[in-house]
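Lecture 7 notes: from sequence to structure.
We start with the chain below.
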Amino acid sequence: MSHSEILADAALTDDDLTGGDLRVFTPVDGSEIARLKTHTVADAGAMIDRAHRAFLEWRKVPAPRRGEFVRLLGEELRRQKDALGALVSLECGKILQEGLGEVQEMIDICDFAVGLSRQLYGLTIASERPGHAMRESWHPMGACGVITAFNFPVAPWSWNAALALVCGDPVIWKPSEKSPLTALAVQRVCERVQDAFGADAPEGLTQVLVGDRDLGEAMTANPKVAIVSATGSVPMGRAVAASMSPRLGRTILELGGNNAMIVAPSADLEMALRAIVFSAVGTAGQRCTSLRRVMVHEDVYDALVPRLMNAYDGLPIGDPLADGTLVGPLIDMEAMTAMERALEQARVEGGVVHGGGRILSDSHPDAAYVRPAIVEMPDQSEIVHHETFAPILYVMKYRDLDDAIAVQNAVPQGLSSCIFSTDMRETEHFLSAVGSDCGIANVNIGPSGAEIGGAFGGEKDTGGGRESGSDAWKGYMRRQTNTINYSRELPLAQGIKFDI
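Predicted C-alpha cells for the same chain:
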C-alpha cells in the first residue's frame, strides 16, 4: 500500500495534509508526507476555554452515559483498526504488527473504561460520632491536557482519554511534532462518535493542538486545565512539573525508562532469549519499556549470550510495512547519531560492541535504519546509566542475586524490570520490598508490552505517574469526604466539648 493510500484510508484529506508550516516525514524512507497547519498560543487558549465550557456540561451527564460515548469510540476504532495501524507504522516506523497492536490497546482501554463508568466507587466510613455517617465520593475534575511522544502516537492518548471521558473530563491532545497525523486521524474518529452520540456530548469534548512546545506550555500554565498527563523525556517532564507546580496543578508523568532483566541460573534460557530479543529490538528500541540492560548469571552467560548474538544476526530489518520485517527504522537521523555516540562511549568505557551501524543507506538514503547492538560491559558504567532511545542492549555478568538487584536499581529511572528464574525464592525476593524498585516488575516475561488492566508507570525519574488500568482513574477525579449528621445532636469529633 502506498503512503498516499494509507493517509486516505485514515480519512486525512489534502486540506489536512497541505498548506501548513509543520513538515512531517515518514521514517520509512525519510520522505515528506505532510505539511500541517499549526496552532498558535491564542488558538490553544481558545481550545482551553471550549474544553472548560464542555466540562461544565459533561460533568452533569451520568457516568454510565459518558461510558456510552467511550463504547462508541471503541466500536469505531475496531472499524478503523487496519487503517490506523498502518498510519501508526507509516508515521513512527514501528512494524505493522506493532502498529495494529497499538490500536488494539486503544480498543482494550475503551472496553475497560465502559465497565469503569459504572464502577466509580467511593467508600462508606464508620463515624466515631453517634447519629453520623461518613462516605467518600468522586467527582469530575476539569479539562485534561494530554501530551504524547512520537514512539506511541495513539495508545497513551487513549489510556488517558478513555478514563478522563468517563470520569467527566474533556481532553485536549498535544501530540509530538514528529507524529501528529495519527492524532488528526483519531480526532476524526472522535468527531464521528460525537455526531452519533448526540446532544449530550458538548462541543470541545475532544480537541487536538498541533505545533511546538509553546502549546504544551499554554496548557500547563492555564488553571482551566486541571490535569496534564505528559509522556516523553525526563527533561520534558521536569518542565511540565515546574510549570504546573506554581498553581498546584495535577500532573501524571510517564517519562524515561532504563529497563533491566536478570537471568538467573535456573532460567528457561529459550524463553529468556525470545523475551530479550522482542523487548530490546521491538519498535527499534524506542519504547519507554524497551530492554536496555541484561544481567546474566555467570553460570549461564556462555550458554545464553552467543545464542543471543546469533539471533540478532538473523533479524529481518527493513520497511516496517512489509511482511516479515521485525525491525523498522529509527525515527530520524538525530536518533541514529545518538546511538552512534552511545556505542562509541561504551567502547571507551570498556564495552565490546557487537552489531550497530547504519544499513540500507543506498536504498534509503534519507532513512535511519540500523543494526541492533549488543554491548558486553565489564560493569554498569556511566553510559549504561543513560537511556539512549535506540536498540542498544548492555549485557553484564553477575554472581549474587542481591548484587544484580542493586545494579538494576542503581540507575535514575524506575519504570520496568523483570527476572527469569524458576526458583520461587528468587522470584519472590525480586518482587519484595527489597527487590526491584520499579513501577513494573515481571517474572518470566520481558519488561516490554504491558496490558491495559494494570496501572502503567514508574518511580524515580520515570515520574511516578500511573495510567491505564487498576485505580488509575482516580488521577482524573477529585475526592470528596462527606459527613452526614442525621441525629438531633451536634457531637464534635475527638470528644471535644465546646458548649455555648
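Points to note: The first helix runs from residue 3 to 9. The chain has a mean pLDDT of 97.
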